[in-house]
Amino acid sequence: MNSNTKTAFETYYRRAFQRAQEAFGQLSEEDWAASARRGAWNAKDYLAHLVASQEHEGNPVTEQAVAGQRPTMEGHEGPQSINDYNARIIETVRQLPAGELLARFRAAFEANIRLLEGVSDADLARTVQHPGWFGPGTLAQVFYTGYLHLPLHYQDIRRCLRPRRELPHWFEASTPEETHDVLARTFEYMPITYWPERGGDLKASILFNLSEPGGGAWTVEIAGPDCRSYEGRPERPTLELSASPKDWVDLTTKELNPLWGFLSRRIRVRGNILLALKLDRLFEVT
Fold first, then answer.
1. Cβ neighbours around 235 below 10 Å, total
2. Domains of the chain by range and CATH?
3. What is the DSSP letter of 168?
4. What would the pLDDT profile of 58-85 be if each residue is shown by its tens digit?
5. pTM of the full predicted structure?
């Protein structure tokens, strides 16, 4: 399947939504109350975040962008305030029972996928300035916000449930093609989440070398306030990070401690290790 088409993206988005929906539907009220050892949220809080972010941000912003309008988010003061914004909007649904949250989760993501059905490949290439991004992106990347939230917060919920219940790791339950699609769209999305004020005058070429079925090589280049990414290898990387897709997503969701990942060789580093330790701050998303 050519993953660069709208048809392919819609297929992968539907599969991801279906998998999350089926997994979440198996959980009991006791499961939803489970918490991880680290972090203030329990499993139901992550579900509430998925619902609130899609209802308050994902769908309204997507509707405006599809209509050719410059998107806005009520009460949002810019990308630097995203954590405060998320903390406010989650309170609109946090106290709801899990059953009602699941119904709203289903409705919100079904609505987002219906919006995707109505656009063309040319539409997806249009430039959009999302109020939560540091720079312009595309309409396709507006849809990625919902799509990439699914594996990210599935993993957070999975972490909360252990050892009470063992959900399969997102990538262990994925085909190689599904794994590659999530990774490719994640690295395509990274430049619009780059915090230029934290990078300062940094200049770097960062190679992410992800092995095993579904992996690949992606480069993120930073030059002062500018950031871009592409699939492939740079001529001379400042930093090379090598891992399996599974270990990489565990690192990005804080399942895997960075220092332990480096020491255990689950994350292999060549080059500027201090830069490696700063990546979560340079590309912070919630």
1. 6
2. 6-167 (1.20.120.450), 196-282 (3.30.1050.10)
3. P
4. 999 999 999 999 999 988 888 888 889 9
5. 0.94
